[in-house]
């Protein structure tokens, strides 16, 4: 018997004894090889081979699935943004009326007050880029003044970051617009597509209880036109009533300058700035929902065609909601 065959047989016998406790042969077969154990061994090897094949196939499919999933997820992660930007010479899509406070004096602080720059310029940029002509009017007509702290060139540096307002201040057309405004009673809602009330410290005195402004705002609202107010200009909504005598905000969800923001401002200057707080007053009204977000975050709400923004950082967001409504 060849050496290699003898080595294989003896090795196989040892494997049989170790794995199966072989006692079948007992010297009855040539070379002490047991046919029964050979069959068992072949079955075991075949089973191991089959199991290995299944495992390897499963791992391969899993890897392929993961690779395909990654490709699919990669395709899903593609994001595209495409917004219309009005170009020079293109015809206007429509006309938006903006209303700001005429200059006044705060009875709380004695400061000269007016409109907040960012609440005019940031929405103005949105409207102009979207292709809308804008007309600015005021409570009394004539020249307008921005609140000192809202001026990006003010010594306080409070609004030094407001490069949008700073940019507009370099334009002659913008300064001409501020220099000579119509009084709000001189315009007709029929000639505009939407109305936007500019906030600031002035509205707390010049918008509250202003029946002419209430009438104008309600005319837009009841005509189904986008009607927006931001920051302290939302004080108008505390009393504005529809033609049926109901408060305009009845059944509405809206926002405005928050108590937490008033608290911050009061502490910053060491005195109470406003004669009352919009959030406090709004929560006294039954049948309406007044909401605020984190202090000084951009937050705007559209409920039907009523659009409101929380404060000066929300003007652009409110304007975008207005434009979206017009573009439907």
Set out the fold topology:
Layout: H1 3-20, H2 35-76, E1 94-100, E2 104-105, E3 112-113, H3 117-129, E4 132-138, H4 163-168, H5 172-179, E5 182-183, E6 194-197, H6 203-206, H7 211-222, E7 227-230, E8 253-254, H8 259-269, H9 278-282, E9 289-290, E10 300-303, E11 306-309, H10 315-326
Parallel strand pairs: 1-4, 1-6, 4-5, 6-7, 7-11, 8-9
Antiparallel strand pairs: 2-3, 10-11
Helix pairs in contact: 3-10
What are the main properties of this structure?
single chain; 328 residues; alpha/beta; seven-stranded mixed sheet; two-stranded antiparallel ribbon; 10 helices; 40% helix
Intertermini distance: 95 Å
**Any low-confidence stretches, pLDDT <50, length ≥5?**
26-31
Specify the helix fraction band.
25-40%
Strand content: 5-15%
Give the overall shape.
Answer: elongated
Radius of gyration: 39 Å
Instruction: Name the structural class.
Output: alpha/beta
Number of helices: 10
Instruction: Give, in order, the helices and strands.
Output: HHEEEHEHHEEHHEEHHEEEH
Major beta sheet, specifics? 7 strands, mixed
Number of strands: 11
| Order of strands in the sheet with most strands | 5-4-1-6-7-11-10
Would you tell me the overall average pLDDT?
89
Brief rundown of the structure:
This protein has 328 residues and is of the alpha/beta class. The chain has helices at residues 3-20, 35-76, 117-129, 163-168, 172-179, 203-206, 211-222, 259-269, 278-282, 315-326, and strands at residues 94-100, 104-105, 112-113, 132-138, 182-183, 194-197, 227-230, 253-254, 289-290, 300-303, 306-309.
